């Protein structure tokens, strides 16, 4: 048999699978002298035999949160600002798809720029910042030591937000690098990288000073994301290196990995922490955490090229990407069992805790978005859904229903602990939850159905292209309705968070019943 | 957990703030492992299949080449494969379009002459057996090697000219050397130097460009007012590309009719409707005459992944199971085109043909005489539409009928 690309690929694929299985087996069964004992003992105290019923107050008992409070507060506020602004741009872009002549008097108001603004403001302004805020809140807690160099992230915060602001102005003026997800001009990329250094250094210092040997699974995701994302961002944004087809390949390698190796670790890490934290039970299985994490690490990096199915890239690159996309079932199932079993066995907490409602809804959406993504990567499915609104629905299932909604819950969990008081109007949180969930449901089902019909119409050569555009109109209108509901939910979210920051007029009640 | 579940509603004790999450040590559920193993096998298989498809493609290509090579052993097979679609399997040619080989002066002149025509092709008027044809024969110098040219020329000379001379490959090699770089034979006039006792041959006409009205030339190459130039989409030679049709060699009547239809909204295309509305009748006639007279090599090639064998079947025989007649039964042998109603199909851009078939099937084009193409296109499945488009693209470009011949047909005066 001649040695061809396919044979080499299949062999290296098998070897890497075996290596992965061996690695997980070795860690799980303590083949190398690590620290499983610590896993059981360090965290066992107060946890192994049920929740600690004495500590129901919201005040920080360790002094750890006090140190992280300032950067976390700033990052959450910055994130919410960009969330509201980014959603408004999103709604405008959505409306323009069925009111094409609306707001067309100036170039910055046109669809192309509105869309770039929406994408980048929610990705870098909202998701990245709120995710980093969770890192600063969670990592010191699981390392059981206060945040080191806590002034650095404050500088990082300002640099990051200046970069996003300048980026927004640049997009509005039409100055971008010209590729989806890589719109930030490389000059501003340098500012983002610099800001990133101010975020990573304190976290690494904290990790090195940790009081525990065993790192909880959230820590793996966060520490890995701190390596993955800068590497991705740097390689993809380096100007003047990639051209032509190679540029497209790098573009989609980056664009999809932003979701999988940056936003996903942020969201999964937060869910892994907050779900057991709120319920007071350990997660189901250490071995499954290993499969979930290392599976993501191995499989995800090749996933992005399925965006180029049918494109002028070597077939084997695309096939490899399709295989890796489908292999994502393995880590996703592992994470799903770990998280959902913990919630399903403690449904009382789901009813009790509003933050958990957001977070476990988001975690379920992670499972669904990933399953959908794996199936969507198959050539047979992709040939229908590619270049349709279906893909947009899928992207929002991942970035919104999963990551954003987990982050809403995280903020609702963090803020009372940071401020030492409860939310004055839990009803508004409930309203926020139902607005975004129902709004998203309308959004997602409209785009999924409309996108499928659009794809089928485009494949049918006997129907004119215009027909495939016109038939999406009612679905695009529904999408605007859903998007507007989500945006209203975000405004409520902002009101809730700003509300708890303000000192209440009445004497603060330190411990209130309902969270 | 049990303790908590037994709590009365409203008195549920929440976990302490001191609690930090940790992992318990439940084993990995077996189904997860099975799913992982199954996916691993599937992934490996898919990657290996990638390799298989290459191996299979390689084998098919080699088998195809071998088959082509084997077939080349007979002059008859070579004739069927390369000559018969135009000159017809019996060598009778097509009246007014393709000269006959049977008993022609050139076949009688022996395999040497035939080989020289094969090597260079013909581009210019030629008189064969008393009729004038607008000769446009492709060169086979690249397609056939010396041995094949020798076999084919000997076969044609023997079968249609009645001679018995057999050409040797070495002689062909020498002829190839002599004629390399000479371009096509300029019609019968140039061939007269090769063949003795040839009846008088028509002179080469002045090139189309020379007789072109400057106003029409401007339209084609520069546009007029808001109307952009023809060449900007259809190419400098009217050769077309992708979804833009080849115009070179379409009949003047057909082009005129289509432009009128675009102008009157009977054929729909945003670009062409706009362009046609900017043209007056004289300009339309001038453009149609220009493109009808252009002789341009085919730039089309199969591009839609269609099954060429199936395409050939539809073009030559139709598919009566579907109620589809042979394309060539109306559009002429080898898709030459017949009159103003049946345009030439050979060498047409495949994406254009497929899009027109789809437009008829979907009811977006309906200017076909008697709705013929509407019904035929509806009956053809999508794969067949691609197959026949690709097959037509694989045919050599068709000569435009000589203007005088057209006039004679339309005037009812036939030399026969």
From TrEMBL, chain A:
GO terms for biological process, alphabetical: electron transport coupled proton transport; oxidative phosphorylation; respiratory electron transport chain
PROSITE patterns: COX1 (PS50855)
UniProt entry tagged with the keyword DNA repair: no
Leader sequence residues: none
GO cellular component: membrane
Keywords: Electron transport, Membrane, Respiratory chain, Transmembrane, Transmembrane helix, Transport
Domain of life: Bacteria
Domain named Cytochrome oxidase subunit I profile: residues: 74-515
Transmembrane segments: 6-28, 74-97, 117-139, 151-172, 184-204, 216-241, 253-275, 287-309, 315-337, 358-375, 395-415, 427-449, 481-501
Protein name, per record: Cytochrome c oxidase cbb3-type subunit 1
Species the sequence originates in: Paracoccus thiocyanatus
Lineage of the organism: Bacteria, Pseudomonadati, Pseudomonadota, Alphaproteobacteria, Rhodobacterales
From TrEMBL, chain B:
Record domain Cytochrome c: where: 70-160, 212-295, 306-396
A Pfam family hit: Cytochrom_C
Molecular-function GO terms, alphabetical: electron transfer activity; heme binding; iron ion binding
Keyword entries, A-Z: Electron transport, Heme, Iron, Metal-binding, Respiratory chain, Transport
Domain of life: Bacteria
Cofactor: heme c
Protein name according to UniProt: Cytochrome c553
Source species: Paracoccus thiocyanatus
């Amino acid at each position: 048999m001649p040695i061809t690309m396919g044979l080499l690929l299949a062999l290296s694929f098998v070897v890497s699978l075996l290596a992965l299985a061996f690695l997980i087996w070795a860690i799980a069964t303590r083949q190398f002298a690590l620290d499983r004992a610590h896993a059981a003992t360090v965290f066992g105290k107060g946890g192994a035999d049920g929740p600690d019923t004495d500590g129901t107050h919201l005040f920080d008992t360790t002094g750890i949160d006090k140190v992280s409070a300032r950067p976390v507060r700033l990052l959450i506020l910055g994130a919410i600002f960009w969330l509201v602004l980014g959603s408004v741009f999103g709604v405008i872009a959505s409306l323009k798809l069925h009111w094409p002549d609306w707001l067309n008097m100036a170039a910055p108001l046109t669809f192309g720029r509105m869309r770039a603004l929406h994408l980048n403001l929610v990705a870098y302004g909202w998701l990245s910042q709120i995710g980093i805020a969770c890192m600063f809140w969670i990592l010191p807690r699981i390392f059981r030591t206060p945040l080191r160099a806590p002034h650095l992230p404050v500088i990082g915060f300002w640099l990051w937000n200046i970069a996003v602001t300048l980026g927004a102005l640049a997009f509005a003026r039409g100055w971008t690098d010209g590729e989806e997800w890589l719109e930030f001009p490389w000059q501003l990329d340098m500012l983002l990288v610099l800001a990133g250094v101010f975020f990573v250094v304190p976290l690494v210092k904290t990790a090195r000073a940790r009081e525990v040997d065993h790192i909880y699974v959230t820590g793996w995701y966060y520490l890995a994301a701190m390596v993955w994302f800068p590497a991705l961002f740097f390689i993809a944004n380096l100007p003047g290196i990639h051209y032509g087809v190679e540029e497209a390949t790098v573009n989609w390698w980056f664009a999809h990995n932003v979701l999988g190796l940056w936003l996903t670790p942020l969201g999964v890490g937060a869910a892994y922490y907050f779900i057991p934290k709120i319920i007071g039970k350990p997660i189901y299985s250490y071995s499954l955490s290993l499969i979930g994490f290392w599976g993501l690490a191995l499989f995800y990096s090749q996933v992005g090229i399925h965006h180029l199915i049918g494109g002028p890239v070597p077939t084997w690159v695309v096939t490899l990407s399709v295989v890796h996309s489908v292999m994502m079932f393995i880590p996703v199932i592992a994470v799903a069992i770990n998280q959902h079993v913990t919630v399903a066995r403690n449904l009382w907490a789901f009813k009790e805790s509003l933050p958990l409602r957001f977070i476990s809804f988001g975690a379920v959406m992670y499972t669904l978005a990933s399953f959908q993504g794996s199936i969507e990567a198959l050539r047979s499915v992709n040939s229908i859904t590619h270049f349709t609104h279906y893909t947009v629905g899928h992207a929002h299932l991942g970035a919104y229903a999963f990551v954003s909604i987990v982050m809403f819950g995280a903020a609702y969990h963090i803020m009372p602990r940071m401020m030492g008081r409860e939310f004055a109007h839990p009803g508004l949180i409930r309203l926020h939850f139902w607005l975004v969930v129902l709004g998203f449901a309308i959004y997602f089902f409209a785009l999924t159905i409309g996108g499928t019909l659009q794809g089928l119409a485009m494949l049918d050569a006997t129907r004119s292209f215009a027909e495939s555009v016109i038939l999406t109109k009612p679905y695009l209108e529904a999408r605007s309705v859903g998007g507007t509901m989500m945006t209203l939910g975000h405004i409520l979210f902002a009101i809730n968070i700003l509300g708890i920051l303000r000192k209440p007029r009445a004497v603060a009640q330190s411990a209130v019943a309902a969270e | 957990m049990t303790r908590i579940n037994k709590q009365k509603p409203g008195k549920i004790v929440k976990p302490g703030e001191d609690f930090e999450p940790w992992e318990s040590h439940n084993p990995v559920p077996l189904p997860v492992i099975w799913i992982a193993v199954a996916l691993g096998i599937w992934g490996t298989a898919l990657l290996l299949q990638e390799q298989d498809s290459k191996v299979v493609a390689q084998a098919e290509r080699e088998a195809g080449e071998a088959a082509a090579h084997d077939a080349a052993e007979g002059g008859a097979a070579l004739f069927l494969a390369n000559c018969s679609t135009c000159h017809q399997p019996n060598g009778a040619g097509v009246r007014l379009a393709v000269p006959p080989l049977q008993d022609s002066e050139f076949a009688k002149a022996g395999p040497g002459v035939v080989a020289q025509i094969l090597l260079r092709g013909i581009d210019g008027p030629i008189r064969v057996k008393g009729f004038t044809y607008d000769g446009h024969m492709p060169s086979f110098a690249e397609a056939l090697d010396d041995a094949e040219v020798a076999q084919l020329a000997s076969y044609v000379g023997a079968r249609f000219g009645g001679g018995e001379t057999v050409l040797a490959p070495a002689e062909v090699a020498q002829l190839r050397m002599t004629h390399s770089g000479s371009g096509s034979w300029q019609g019968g006039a140039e061939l007269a130097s090769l063949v003795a006792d040839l009846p008088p041959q028509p002179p080469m006409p002045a090139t189309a460009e020379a007789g072109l009205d400057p106003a029409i030339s401007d339209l084609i190459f520069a546009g007029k007012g808001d109307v952009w130039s023809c060449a900007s989409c259809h190419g400098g030679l009217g050769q077309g590309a992708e979804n833009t049709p080849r115009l070179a060699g379409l009949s003047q009547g057909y082009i005129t009719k289509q432009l009128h239809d675009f102008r009157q909204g009977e054929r729909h295309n945003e670009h062409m409707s706009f362009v046609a509305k900017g043209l007056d009748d004289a300009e339309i006639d001038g453009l149609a005459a220009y493109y009808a007279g252009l002789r341009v090599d085919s730039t089309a090639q199969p591009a839609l992944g269609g099954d060429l064998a199936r395409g050939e079947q539809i073009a030559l025989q139709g598919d009566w199971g579907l109620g589809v007649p042979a394309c060539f039964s109306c559009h002429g042998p080898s898709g030459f085109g017949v009159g103003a109603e049946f345009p030439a199909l050979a060498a047409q851009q495949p994406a254009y043909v497929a899009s027109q078939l789809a437009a008829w099937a979907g009811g977006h084009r309906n200017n076909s005489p008697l709705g013929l193409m509407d019904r035929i296109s509806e009956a053809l499945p999508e794969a067949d539409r691609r197959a026949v488009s690709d097959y037509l693209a694989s045919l050599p470009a068709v000569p435009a009928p000589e203007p005088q011949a057209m006039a004679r047909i339309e005037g009812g005066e036939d030399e026969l």
